[in-house]
Amino acid sequence: MFGLMIHQRRFSSFLFSCLIGFSLNPLLLVSLARSQTLAYCKLSPQAIAQKESLRQTALTGNPEGIKNYNTILTQHAQQINQCRQRINPKNQAIWLRLYPCDTRPGEIDRILDNIINRGYNKVYLEVFYDGQVLLPSGKNPTAWPSAMRSPGMENQDLLAETIQKGRQRGLKVYAWMFMLNYGYTYTLKPDKNSVLARNGKGETTTTAVIDQTKIDEYGESFVNQGFVDPYHPTARQDYLTLLNTILQRRPDGVLFDYVRYPKGLGGESVATKVKDLWIYGEASQQAFLNRASSQKGKDLMQRFIQQGFITENDVKAVNEKHPDEKDKPYWPDEKQWKTLASIPKMGETLQLQLWRLSVAHARQGVLDFLALATQPIQRQGIPAGAVFFPEANRKIGGMGFDSRMQPWDQFSSSIEWHPMSYAVCGQVNCITAQVQQVIQQALPGTQVIPALAGDWGKSIKNRPSLEQQMVNISATIPQINAFSHYGYDWQDLEETRQRKFCKRS
């Protein structure tokens, strides 16, 4: 406790010195959150009003108005950058989804102005979500429909436009993409049926949940979900085509979401037996059997996934069938497979070994897919990152695992880690605890950037304000110097409604 008080005092002194330094600038207001010690870079109401007036003038096509508007954009970009260099967090990002109504003249400018006005210097722009892509329908070589499909929008590239306009304002624009959740539209394609993830009941993720309108604890509907088999070559090729098309727009980075399998409802949220796992697609099954170290091991693995268990008679029959393999191992051990080593042992029987092997195989599919997608990004010299739930890699009870099988503790330290620290307990402690859990398991040097849900200055959905969350995390874990906020839609619900239904004038 004493150490925490010292951190808070140092943090307060540092931010106070920053506040004094920037208060001399009449265009920039670095506010202090109420009764908190975390400073954040915000433009003053006067500066915001001046810029909005110039934006309105620029919309008329007035050359002088356009020139003056561009000038103030540059000034504000410099001011926010200078502010962020002198205080923590150094980087503050916001998650953004665009809607068809945002194609109206000047709307992207207005949204990005709002973002820079609030002190953000990064935007995580959703470019692949709910089975659709933020690409113009006239230039969309991917397996998914364009999010902007209205007549007359065939060549409007909101992704490229947002990246360009963001940079003009000093904002770095990351592409935020779903990964293994390809969306419901993808599952409807007859030629993609074999690509879908399947469990031991033969279900896909769209047929496993009978009532697709159900909502999980994070507010996510199952309506638009459709998960694929990460081992399937078509799933990989379709994703790489999408990713390379996004990279042609030159984003400042790429973040991957849904780097996991689905989370079931109720008891289905815990996997306790092999048939609960999403490893029954053709490609995944074959990859699983290929992990065997001998033919006898392969035969046992085959029986295990087909039956859901093995018996002493199975072991006896397999050994008698392959007498020449008496001294050969059945399957890999920890020395050969890091993913297997990361899963706690539950016993030495062949049945328990096979269960552990199955879990490792499910997790390895996620890791392999993430590594594959990361390569073209890092070749461009821009950051890649993965978004994950800190609790999604848990072992639960004696035999169970979180059904998402999200092995974030095995993610590469060369990418950004974005833990979705969304715990809800009415206080900050449980949120900070999630970030601490990630820090403890990350290798030194790993860039950990917590994603926080909420709004400024008020509690929302039983979560404390963003200021309160950042203050507590920064005081407890001082090495954290970047955050992201989910999301733009939450910070002004009325504006979001207007944007969705084209109500703005």
Descriptive account of the structure:
This protein has 505 residues and is of the alpha/beta class. The protein is 41% helix and 12% strand. The chain has 17 helices and 14 strands. The protein has helices at 2-23, 45-59, 63-86, 107-117, 158-168, 184-187, 205-208, 233-247, 282-289, 295-307, 312-321, 338-341, 350-379, 429-441, 466-476, 488-491, 493-500; strands spanning 28-32, 39-43, 91-96, 122-129, 132-133, 172-178, 253-257, 270-271, 384-388, 395-396, 400-402, 416-419, 451-453, 482-486. The strands form three sheets. Strands 3, 4, 5, 6, 7, 9, 12, 13 and 14 form a nine-stranded mixed sheet that branches. Strand 10 and strand 11 (400-402) form a beta hairpin. Helix 2 (45-59) runs antiparallel to helix 4 (107-117) and helix 14 crosses helix 15 (466-476). The longest helix is centred in the last third of the chain and has 30 residues, at 350-379. It is elongated, with a radius of gyration of 25 Å.
Distance between the termini: 53 Å
- How many β-strands, per DSSP? 14
Q: Determine the number of helices (DSSP H or I, runs of at least 4 residues).
A: 17
Can you give the mean pLDDT? 90
For the biggest sheet, the summary is: 9 strands, mixed
Radius of gyration over C-alpha positions, nearest whole angstrom: 25 Å
